[in-house]
Design goal:
single chain; 370 residues; alpha/beta; Rossmann fold; 3 domains; 6-stranded mixed beta sheet; 3-stranded antiparallel beta sheet; 42% helix
Length: 370
Amino acid sequence: MTERSLVVRIGDHVHGFLRDLHDQGLRVPVPKQQVFLQAIEAVGPRDAAHLYWIGAATLTASREDLEVYSPTFQRWFGEVTARPVRDQESPDDETPAPGQGDEAPLTAAFGGEAGLKAGSSERERRPVFGPASGEDRALLSLLRRELPGAVPTVRSRRRRPARRGPWIDLARICRESWRGHGEIVTLRRRNRPRRQRRVLLLIDVSGSMKQHSADYLRFAHAAVGRLDRVEVFTFGTRLTRVTEPLRARDVDAAVGSLSDVVLDAEGGTRIGASLQEFLGNARYVTVARGALVIVLSDGLERGDCGPMQAAVRRLSSLSHRLLWWSPLACDPAYRPVTRGMSAVLGSVDALAGVRDLRTAYEQVQTLDGE
């Protein structure tokens, strides 16, 4: 039951609280503010601590945002000490008070809610990506060097001439014997050489990922430039194929050109619908079959998580390996307890933390061609 006094305080102060957040440097977009107000109405906060975590889930996107949000919240609604809401399957362990100390896990704020932080806005937004720094370019050079050896390989279906192999190259032997007056000098063989598996990158460009999208797309540019068979798609509220724009030689030109292609950046999140759109296209399904599939997303789905669960399950069955790289998993305290991530975790081969090019490089080094 929601406390009556809390309802009065919410009605009197919530708009002033949002203005204060803006004045303190946390400029929350209007769609996110609307999600916050809708969440208050839909969930009905039980107490100030419950309201704190609703706001943290809907208004913040990073630890830096949380450091601004926590003291501002306490000025308007008072200091609170409570544990975040968790799924029933999660261990009932102690967590720090909201906003206190560096060890307070931001990701715990999304515990029992069905991706309330994920927005639903479908307005077109043209993203603007800044130029890559010198450090970024150095990391991209390292990634280009490591990627070919890190991608898993598979035996080619076609037989090729080789020094050794289980098949005799009869046609080649006959051609050479004609030049040698019918005498066979060397027994030629054929083999099925190994080649890189396809790589499929699915990149979340929604509002909750805007701090990481540019680095994810730069990583995709390095993959497109160095690997034999790569496909790249972005998703927010829709699915967009961006492989061709990323073929440009310069990383800034390639990523910058996406502002004319990716029109749902920094908006809402519809992971399940986007993945189902991918799986509904027969050509795209061929790309995923037997591929190394990497989903770069925080996994914060809005609303019903059933479509997301079904899509990830099928994607896992099609692929050679399905990896999920999330910026939230970079936090040692992170646990995938949101309904979306907990639902798909069983279909994912590995969940790892990747928030920028450096952490992407670290994860590439762990692949080791498996």
